[in-house]
Amino acid sequence: MAGLYVHIPFCEKKCIYCDFYSIESVHDYDAFLASLTTEIEMRARLLPVGRSFHSIFFGGGTPSLLSPAQLGGILETLHARFRFDPLVEITVECNPGTIDVDKLRGYRAAGVNRLSFGVQSFHADDLEFLSRIHTAEEAETAIRTAHGAGIKNVNLDLMFSLPGQTPERWMANLERARALGTTHLSCYSLTIEQGTPLARMVARGMVGIPPEESDAALFELTMQTLSDWGFRQYEVSNYALPGFESRHNLTYWRHEDYLGFGPSAHSTIHGRRWWNVSSLQTYLERIRGGQLPESGGEFLSADTLRSEHIFLRLRSEGISLPDFTRLYGSDLHADNRDFIDRCIADGMLVIDSERLKLTRKGLLVCDEICAELK
Ligand code: SF4
What we know:
It is built from 16 helices and 17 strands. It is an alpha/beta fold. Strands 9-10-8-7-6-5-4-1-11 form a 9-stranded mixed sheet, sandwiched between helices. The chain has a 3-stranded antiparallel sheet with strand order 12-13-14, with no helix packed on it. It has a 3-stranded antiparallel sheet with strand order 15-17-16. A hairpin with a 2-residue loop joins strand 16 (349-352) and strand 17. Helix 1 crosses helix 10 (280-288) and helix 6 runs parallel beside helix 8 (212-228). The longest helix has 18 residues, at 29-46. The model has no long low-confidence stretch (mean pLDDT 95). The chain binds iron/sulfur cluster (SF4). Residues 11, 14-15, 18, 20, 22, 60-62, 95, 118 line the site of iron/sulfur cluster.
């Protein structure tokens, strides 16, 4: 199986913490959409006929700035050029400040069956600090509007470890998300990305970032609370009610192929990874000149595939030890026996039905454990 990603590189306003490629503008969407169509057609000619895709994800940027007609036009082009599973999952990332019921009904009519809202917090002062364009009330309305438009499969992105955030304030966010009937939650801690306004504010001492212990405490609280409410943690930061796991997310974590379109989009097909230019201007010029908008690429070595397998699987559903041996010709447990057995004794790893998995305690130090496995 494989997934498709479409990057829409526009935002009404840049958030202070964001390092995704997007530009603040009321831009000429038509020029971008024409080039996107051309890129999809160029790429389709290069792919083997017969490959089927099981998910389409519109990310960004703010895909919900597009009208239903614009989004539907992209979907028509994709359907004309690629084959899809009959139950294809089609997700649109939405900023709550950019939608209304007519837009969401239009998306649904175009085939969209999953929405992902960048809510981040239900507290007005957090939203102001993060420079989000929406209010807490708009976020609540957006989710109710999604349900009213007939889309029940809804993810909320929420952010913890915000400056001054107490466990009580974080719990209030989780409780509000639950009360709204969300089926999926992505809970990330605030990270300071280099080059962002937030990084400069932290460097100047204008913002204090909570210490690691309080980040870990909020993460543990999240895992325990959402598990008590029936959500399954199927990746470090992602929780779903049964049957609402994102097929598109699973594509990445299972190391399956994905094909991306638009500025800065990444793709991995048949062991080759490439990435598009992170500049709308260059993207448009390349496509108009009849060139693919790639800015770089590489063939993935066996070592890279192996270490990515460890990292991606351990963060999500665990590593099947027999599958690992079949794929890479080495016995992961035997090669790391002392370390793995020590982590098992310390309650950070378990082997369950020949699958090596992180426990909740292990999830707190996931990156460190992945780095040790050879
Ligand atoms: S709306 Fe999303 S993509 Fe746009 S700047 Fe904010 S976080 Fe980044």
